[in-house]
Amino acid sequence: MEIELKNLTKSYGATKVVTGLDLSLDKGEMVALLGPSGCGKTTTLRMVAGFVDVTAGEIRLKGRDVTHVPSYKRDCGLVFQNYALFPHLSVFENIAFGLRRRSVRPPELTERVTKVLSMMQLDGLAQRYPSQLSGGQQQRVAVARALVINPAILLLDEPFSNLDAKLRDSTGYELRRIQRDLGLTSIFVTHDQSEAMGIADRIAVMNKGVIEQLGSADEIYNRPATRFIASFIGKANFVPATVISNKEHIVELGGGIRLQLTSQPLPADGTAIDVMMRPEHLAIGNPEDAGLKARLEDVTFQGSTARIRASTETGGDLLIEVPGTSLPTLPSSGSTINLLPDPNSTRAFTK
């Protein structure tokens, strides 16, 4: 394992920010720490970097115990959220800073900086200063500065949060390509699920200082382990239901609609649960179909999709997403629609 975190804990007085966290990364793997503000993801990253002392637990990098090793001896490249570029230094000197601290000789220093400038598509900007760069260029300089020292581990603390959406996508793709080409093991902190799902090999979803689920983007989206993850990742509808037969995996929704949920075990018969349905997993059926009756309240065109808001007879509100091309055929607002859930894409959570 390239990175191993064992029972990692950080407390400030009586307040635990990270509790008993376990995480392992293979060589060349990128794992995203994803979660809302205050969940402990940045604190975890800063403990790995050596900027925050560990209350309990162990950090091993490339098999070496570095739990109490100073940050400058951990061989980590770190990209900060605010880039932390030196305003009085040129792009070249910002990138060369770590090499000069390591007493790299001038010919090698120039060669390595020139190489990483080309890798990050910063050719021609070497003599500019940070104030003369765009946000995307500053971000690439920060990444170049982390890469030029040839770190064993790359740590990224919300590096795209200051970029607009289009630039964030393109820069994230480029960073991922470079990380794969170099075989760097990386931990990437973000609160943006789209970033995590688009860049990381695996995603560790954190909540209140613990990892609630670790898996691929497909796993955490389609098979969320907890109600928190189901609601935090993507969009979700929660419909009250009752377990009719846990042996046959049958639940009953309001209005007497029954579904067979074969994708997971169910609690005992008679248990009140909430059934989670993604908006794209609800189809509009024919009036005679046995489905979930709802009143269409509003339709919004989103380009590739049309977003429908509807209210059920039991009082719950639902969000449905259908292809944008179906917009002309949709019923008008106020109409009764018949919703057909996909039982293979539905998850149940106890209340």
UniProtKB/TrEMBL annotation:
<keyword id="KW-0547">Nucleotide-binding</keyword>
<feature type="domain" description="ABC transporter">
    <location>
        <begin position="3"/>
        <end position="233"/>
    </location>
</feature>
<dbReference type="InterPro" id="IPR027417">
    <property type="entry name" value="P-loop_NTPase"/>
</dbReference>
<dbReference type="InterPro" id="IPR050093">
    <property type="entry name" value="ABC_SmlMolc_Importer"/>
</dbReference>
<keyword id="KW-0067">ATP-binding</keyword>
<keyword id="KW-0813">Transport</keyword>
<dbReference type="Pfam" id="PF08402">
    <property type="entry name" value="TOBE_2"/>
</dbReference>
<dbReference type="Pfam" id="PF00005">
    <property type="entry name" value="ABC_tran"/>
</dbReference>
<dbReference type="InterPro" id="IPR017871">
    <property type="entry name" value="ABC_transporter-like_CS"/>
</dbReference>
<comment type="similarity">
    <text>Belongs to the ABC transporter superfamily.</text>
</comment>
<dbReference type="InterPro" id="IPR013611">
    <property type="entry name" value="Transp-assoc_OB_typ2"/>
</dbReference>
<protein>
    <submittedName>
        <fullName>ABC transporter ATP-binding protein</fullName>
    </submittedName>
</protein>
<dbReference type="InterPro" id="IPR008995">
    <property type="entry name" value="Mo/tungstate-bd_C_term_dom"/>
</dbReference>
<dbReference type="InterPro" id="IPR003439">
    <property type="entry name" value="ABC_transporter-like_ATP-bd"/>
</dbReference>
<dbReference type="GO" id="GO:0005524">
    <property type="term" value="F:ATP binding"/>
</dbReference>
<dbReference type="InterPro" id="IPR003593">
    <property type="entry name" value="AAA+_ATPase"/>
</dbReference>
